[in-house]
């Protein structure tokens, strides 16, 4: 994160220098009006003699106002531009990181948490950058330029006496701010919890309604929302205490200036004009001092956000880069061999796959059937190295899967996943899925093969129809067929269908399977399904149970075994019979 941030900051160093220069000039010019007004006051003592000088000073006053405006405009624009650009660049980098980190890391991050990285944490960094460039810079320049002007133009002792309470105020602010911070950390924690809860509740709205759980969800939300409000209140109370202390210190400062300043005027050490100018200079401190708590608070918030983002940026990325020359389709045959494969998910002691052995050659079809949670999807995830695979366990074309660059591996395996995930974009984009240069005709052909073409034609904008979030406006069977279409566009040598026919009616299923058979006749194909009809013509069928291969063989061989497969077969046959009656 440090390196990323430094690189981003480097991009804007010229703009940042310009901001600092403009703010320096702005503060310098800002002392002019007080000085000129002081001069005018002194000149007013003898209007007749000083007439010409008075007119001159009035023009100076006008000129200084124009100068102030002239330097204000560019820095106001730049302080908007730089933090926004930094925010955009961090967002780009963060999204890139999420796309590239390993599955083992990403699955431990909740959706709500991801959103708060993008919405809250990056905003905190942007806001701090803004405050740093405007408020902190103005504070520093005011302290230096206004103090020097007060000392030079009016009186050193008066300046020191008046600034003492202001300096005390600055320290007080820093102390009280620690309490504000603690409340803020609590508030941020509750905010994240609330966001996660809202996200999860809206995702699960169908289940909630089906189980009439709305009131339970609402009660829990109210509880969490109250906690957030309590934490925010605490932040407000401490912030109010802070501003009260600040106002008090300023009151004392003005008091000292009035008493000490009047004494100096009466003694003749300073003129009335100097005294008026001095009060004008003090006013310059009011804004910058009151901004300091905000800057410190924003700094601490940004520090917390920085640490949170730093953790994300520290997560290990998948190495997608191809060191070797890009493997062409001809080099990647697609013969798979799995030897004594064991697997349990990171941070879990449960063995998900136990001593798995099988092999499949190009042109063959492997069927996998098994009970729920028996490890079918996990096995496919390992074939794509979505999780770490031990060496000497999985081989493709005789090569250890760990020696095949990830990009090559994933480009050559077409994995139609079980979750039927659809992006909220057009059907066309969903079917092409990250692939360019595909003709509309090819897409139409693939949808015909997946038996979804007619459904798409009936939609208002056909293949250009934008579908709702996660395909919410399509039926389960339609979603499956859209996802299956991807396989017909893919030129990969290995094609995997993970439980992708389950929502199709028997007739459609048989038609799709016929087309799949044609598609994979010269490819390596793995079909995972709990329907015997999907896999019965496979060259080899594996029966998985609790992570173990309990039976292997062809459909006929497995039936003869009178084991688990036979049991599935009879259960399904009985169900079909019942459905027919
Ligand atoms: N990301 C994960 N982290 C930890 N455990 C997981 C993860 N994914 C799956 N599991 C566990 O691994 C086991 C196998 O899951 P898997 O999804 O491979 O089963 P499956 O055979 O595909 O099931 P289904 O028929 O429901 O699709 C299950 O016990 C599941 O709880
Ligand atoms: Mg599965």
Describe the protein.
- The protein is an alpha/beta fold.
- It has three domains: 2-314, ABC transporter type 1, transmembrane domain (ABC transporter transmembrane region fold); 333-412 and 493-581, 3-Layer(aba) Sandwich (Rossmann fold); 418-491, Rossmann fold, CATH 3.40.50.
- 66% of the residues lie in helices and 9% in strands.
- It has helices at residues 2-11, 13-43, 47-100, 103-106, 111-153, 156-203, 205-210, 214-267, 272-314, 376-383, 406-411, 427-432, 440-449, 453-458, 476-489, 506-519, 532-535, 555-561, 564-580, and strands at 336-343, 353-360, 365-370, 394-396, 399-400, 413-416, 494-498, 524-528, 540-545, 548-553.
- The strands form two sheets. A six-stranded mixed sheet has the order 6-7-8-3-9-10, sandwiched between helices. It has a four-stranded antiparallel sheet with strand order 2-1-4-5, with helices on one face.
- Helix 2 packs antiparallel against helix 9.
- The longest helix has 54 residues, at 47-100.
- It is elongated and about 120 Å long.
- Adenosine-5'-triphosphate binds at residues 107, 345, 348, 352, 370, 372-378, 418, 499.
């Amino acid at each position: 994160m440090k390196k990323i941030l430094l690189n981003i900051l480097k991009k804007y160093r010229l703009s940042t220098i310009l901001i600092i220069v403009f703010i320096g000039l702005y503060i310098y010019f800002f002392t002019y009006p007080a000085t000129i007004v002081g001069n005018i006051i002194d000149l007013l003592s003898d209007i007749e003699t000083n007439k010409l000088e008075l007119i001159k000073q009035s023009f100076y006053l006008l000129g200084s106002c124009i100068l102030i405006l002239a330097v204000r405009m560019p820095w106001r624009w730049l302080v908007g531009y730089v933090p926004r650009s930094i925010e955009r660049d961090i967002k780009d980098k963060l999204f890139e990181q999420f796309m590239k980190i390993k599955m083992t890391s990403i699955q431990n991050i909740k959706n709500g948490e991801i959103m708060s990285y993008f919405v809250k944490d990056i905003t905190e960094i942007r806001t701090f950058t803004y405050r740093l460039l405007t408020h902190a810079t103005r504070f520093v320049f005011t302290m230096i330029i206004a103090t020097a002007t007060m000392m030079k133009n009016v009186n050193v002792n008066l300046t020191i006496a008046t600034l003492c309470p202001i300096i005390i105020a600055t320290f007080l602010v820093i102390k009280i701010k620690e309490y504000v911070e603690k409340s803020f950390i609590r508030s941020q924690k509750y905010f994240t919890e609330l966001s996660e809860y809202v996200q999860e509740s809206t995702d699960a709205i169908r289940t909630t309604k089906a189980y009439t759980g709305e009131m339970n969800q609402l009660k829990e939300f109210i509880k969490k929302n109250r906690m957030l409000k309590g934490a925010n209140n605490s932040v407000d109370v401490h912030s109010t205490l802070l501003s009260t202390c600040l106002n008090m210190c300023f009151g004392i400062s003005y008091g000292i200036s009035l008493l000490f300043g009047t004494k100096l005027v009466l003694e003749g050490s300073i003129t009335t004009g100097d005294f008026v100018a001095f009060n004008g200079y003090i006013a310059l401190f009011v804004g910058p001092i009151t901004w300091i708590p905000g800057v410190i608070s924003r700094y601490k918030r940004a520090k917390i956000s920085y640490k949170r983002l730093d953790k994300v940026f520290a997560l290990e990325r998948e190495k997608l880069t191809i060191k070797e020359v890009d493997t062409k389709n001809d080099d990647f045959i697609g013969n798979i061999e799995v030897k004594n494969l064991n697997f349990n998910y990171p941070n879990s002691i449960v063995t998900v796959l136990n001593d798995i052995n099988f092999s499949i050659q190009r042109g063959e079809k492997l069927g996998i059937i098994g009970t729920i949670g028996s490890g079918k999807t996990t096995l496919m995830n390992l074939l794509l190295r979505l999780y770490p695979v031990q060496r000497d366990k999985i081989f493709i074309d005789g090569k250890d899967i760990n020696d095949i660059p990830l990009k090559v591996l994933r480009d050559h395996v077409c994995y139609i996943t079980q979750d039927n995930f659809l992006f909220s974009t057009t059907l066309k984009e969903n079917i092409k899925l990250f692939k360019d240069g595909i003709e509309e005709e090819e897409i139409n052909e693939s949808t015909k093969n997946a038996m979804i073409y007619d459904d798409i034609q009936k939609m208002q904008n056909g293949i250009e129809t934008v579908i709702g979030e996660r395909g919410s406006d399509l039926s389960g069977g339609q979603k499956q067929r859209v996802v299956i279409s991807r396989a017909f566009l893919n030129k990969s040598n290995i094609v995997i269908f993970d439980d992708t026919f389950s929502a199709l009616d028997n007739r459609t299923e048989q038609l799709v399977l016929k087309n799949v058979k044609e598609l994979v006749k010269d490819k390596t194909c793995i079909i995972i399904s709990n329907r015997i009809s999907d896999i019965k013509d496979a060259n080899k069928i594996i029966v998985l149970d609790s992570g173990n291969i309990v039976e292997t063989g062809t459909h006929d061989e497995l039936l003869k075994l009178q084991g688990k497969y036979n049991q599935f077969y009879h259960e399904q046959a009985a169900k079909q019979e019942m459905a027919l009656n």
